[in-house]
Amino acid sequence: MKFENLLGHHGTAVARRLGWKQGDEEENWSKKAIDSLMKKLQKQNKDSMLMLEQVLKTEGRTPSECVTIPRSLDGRLQISHRKALPHVIYCRVYRWPDLQSHHELKAIKTCRYCFESGQRDICINPYHYDRVEAGVLPPVLVPRHSELPPVSVPYPSTEIWATVIYYELNNRVGQQIPVSHHEVVIDGFTDPTTNSSKISLGLFSNVNRNSTIENTRRHIGKGVKLTYVPNQGTLFAQCLSESAIFVQSRNCNRFNNFHPTTVCKITSGCSMKIFDAEVFRTLLGQAANQSFDASYELTNMSLIRMSFVKGWGSEYQRQDVTSTPCWIEIHLHAPLRWLDQVLSNMAPPPKPISSMS
């Protein structure tokens, strides 16, 4: 079936109206995306192709079945030079050109093959997903001045204050790494020594690593130095690499009055405070007077995501951190302990949390 036939009586006007309009994408991107879909459906399920055409004509006003394509190894689909999640691509093309990421989509209850189900096939029926409020990523912000940690005598600590997890795209690589030193360097080298104040990402192996990841790893260099100040409960990040690092910390965004999902770009030699325990303590006290769910939401504030070399956000090709080649997630233990104490003394939520939540 030809591209024009799929569009039905709307013709190419639908492609112009619903085309991919983000960043510097070329005008014919939507046609490439639809042509790619047509080839997949024609090869695997011609009935789905007719079903999709009917769904688009009726604009989802009548119930419809799932329209599926096979899930790739990393879950994403490449159109031209860009990769994205399939259901996001076709919801952008056919319904919401300003859609940023999968966090803004929620599958309807009757969708059997929604992306979140983790099945071998993915439903790309654009009317099997609803748009939810997730906030559009604002521009990446770059601090003008360094925020340096207070001068103190460094000493080893036996208490584990954080756990670091390394990712390449949306795949976790290696084991979780406990952090006890108040100063720890995370670099791209292959230092084989058992130095607990250094994490060398060059030692991590991944059989699914592609050339983009390999090239990015080569530019991590000296990486980042994390400085934890236990008596203040603050955490600082200093970029030691010649390439920038990108940090998303909801706690940091809160005390800087940024949008909650803002990504901060820290350039070479610059330092920035990325967590403040007092801010967390104040918010936890407020949430404890509201509800269990309000308190539980603060779990996100104990997590910090940081990518190396490649950034993400509204001004980048990559809309989500899971699309960056090399990134880490830092789990702060003290905030989680405080949160656990508060939640254990509260009544459970009216709708208990489960795997289906």
TrEMBL record:
The MH1 domain extends over 12-138
Gene Ontology MF term list: DNA-binding transcription factor activity, RNA polymerase II-specific; I-SMAD binding; metal ion binding; RNA polymerase II cis-regulatory region sequence-specific DNA binding
Q: GO CC terms for this protein? A: cytoplasm; heteromeric SMAD protein complex
Keyword Metal-binding included in the entry's annotation = yes
The GO annotation for biological process reads: anatomical structure morphogenesis; BMP signaling pathway; cell differentiation; post-embryonic development; regulation of developmental process; regulation of multicellular organismal process; SMAD protein signal transduction
Report the subcellular localization.
Cytoplasm; Nucleus
What does the sequence similarity comment in the record state about its family?
Answer: Belongs to the dwarfin/SMAD family.
Per its record, how is this protein called by name?
Mothers against decapentaplegic homolog
